[in-house]
Every structure is written in structure tokens, then in C-alpha cells.
Amino acid sequence: MNQNPLLEIKNLKTYFPIKAGVFKTTVGHIRAVDDISLTIYKGETLGIVGESGCGKTTLCKSIVMLNNPVSGEIQYYSNSESFRIPCINKSDMDKARRKIQYIFQDPQSSLNPVFTVFGSMNDVLRLRGVKKKKERRKIVGDLLEAVNMRRDQLDDYPHEFSGGQRQRIGIARALCVNPELVICDEAVSALDVSIQAQVLQLLKKFKEERNLTYIFVTHNLAVVEYVSDRIAVMYLGKVVELADTDDLFKNMFHPYTKALCSAIPVADINAKKNKIVLTGDVPNPANPPSGCPFHPRCLNCFEKCKTDVPKLRKYKVNGKDYFVACHLAHNQLKEKEIQEDLK
Questions:
Q1: Which end of the chain has a smaller Cβ tally under 10 Å, C or N?
Q2: Which residues 6+ apart lie within 8 Å of 213 measured at CB?
Q3: What are phi and psi of 223, to 5 degrees?
């Protein structure tokens, strides 16, 4: 894997205010993304997994400034120029957004129902500098064919397509500005299994042909294992484990990751699998528990977990970088050298 960074996220926090009373006074904050640091490398697919409400989508929307972080820094290293997000002026932010595109979870609500397929991409291509309408129509037609649709469908409206076709249009729209990074936010979760496979194959094909980098958000660990080079596991706004895909599925030091992986369905009915059933509910992100955020549901919790917040530390496991935020894992790995703390 290429070790040149494309995107560096440092100490990112995205909080949403809680309003109450007649005057809508801020009485607290929902800590949707709580002090995350990540590096995404050129040409890789970084999978992000976790339960609903753990902050996966908020993190992705914060990268493209659809949500405004309260603190932290995002540095994007384009092939042509670099950007610090949020950019100082709108012009630079527009340039950054052309390099980073987003495929949304719901293919129906992400397309404007009053625009045809061509209409949804027309303005984007014109802003990109494609002046002639005939040339813009050719580009959209070529993109439709690239996602296994017919060229003559560019004048059809979103309601005339199936869910899988609408998601392919979403992929074509993301690719029309020649991005370097594509964020796939639950891009296949709303689709049938057979259609999911087709869309995943398309994404893999475009990654190779266009040298793309992906951030792939999903609940499905079987899907993320198939598409990802590395996997980041999130819980309550924090990254709790991060490693190469093969290494993570071999090791799984964090109890939360083990519980997630134990829930993956197995096709073989004779295969025995020890499922880890988590007790209790996900804590309220407006009032997270003291110490480790996972400790109220952890079967291996001990006293330190209730008082001290574990840092995301970098270890060497079988000669490779492995990140985990867990006191129990730290005790298991204490003989290995801690390379650095990520705050």
C-alpha cells in the first residue's frame, strides 16, 4: 500500500448543541465525533465500521464540511495542491470539494427529483470548465455507460429508476469531476444483496482505473472485509481499533471489535460460532460514561476502565502498525513497544 498521505485528520471534534427552554439556551452537546485522528493514504480503501450512532457519517460529513467541526484540523494533500479544511475562502473550499466526492446512503433522496440525470451533473461540469453542452452530454453519457447503464437514460428522472440504478447514478455523479477521494457512506446498505455485489464491483473497477482513494462506511463487516485495505472501528465518537484488514480479523484486541465480528452471519449451518452478546444500550453521546466509553457494556471491564480514558496507541504487531484504545489490550501488549499516543 502507498504510504503517501492523502488526508490527515488531527484531533477532530464535531459536537451538536442541545437547546432547551424558551430562549433555546445551549444546555449541553452531543459529542458525535470526539477527538479523532486518522491518516488516509493515497490509493487505499479505509473501511469505517461501528453501530448506528457511533459517529461514522458525522466524521465523513465533517471532512467535506457538510457538518462544521468545533475544533481540529483536516489537511488534504492533492496531487496538484494541498488544502487545509475548512479552507480560508469559498474558492479554495470549492476546489477541495472537487477533489473529494460523496456517495450518499439513500440513492433516492440524494438525487433532486426535478432534475434529469443530465441536469444533476450539468452545472457541475459547466463549473469544471466544460463550456459546450454537447460535450457535457457526451461526458454524462460516457459515465452512464461506465456504470452499466444506457446512454439514452441521461434525460430520465430519478423516479424512473430502481434503487440500484439510482445508486449507480450517484456513483457517476461523484466521478464526473474526476475526484481523488470518494467517501462511500453506506453506499450499498439500502440495496439488495445481488445489487450490492454489482455496485461493489463497480467501485473496485473505478478504483483501479482512476487511481481513487475510498473511505467506505458500513455496518456490514463482511462487506468491509471484502473491499478495505485497512479498517477503523468506531464507538461513541472515537476510533477504538485500527489496523490492516487481515491483521484486524486475525487479532481483534478490543472487546467491541470482537463483539462486532462475532455477529457476522455464517453460511455454514454446521459451523459453530461463539457469539458475544453485548448487554445494555449504547451510552448517550451527550453524557458519555467516565473512563472507557465501552466499559458499561464490556464483559472484561476492570477498575481502571471505569476511571481512565484509554488513548489510541500504536503498537507493533507482527512487524506492522496496530492501533488500539483499550486498557485490557494494553496489558496484553505491554511487552511490545508503544510507538506513540494519538490524542
A1: C
A2: 6, 7, 40, 41, 42, 43, 44, 45, 180, 181, 182, 207
A3: -70, -45
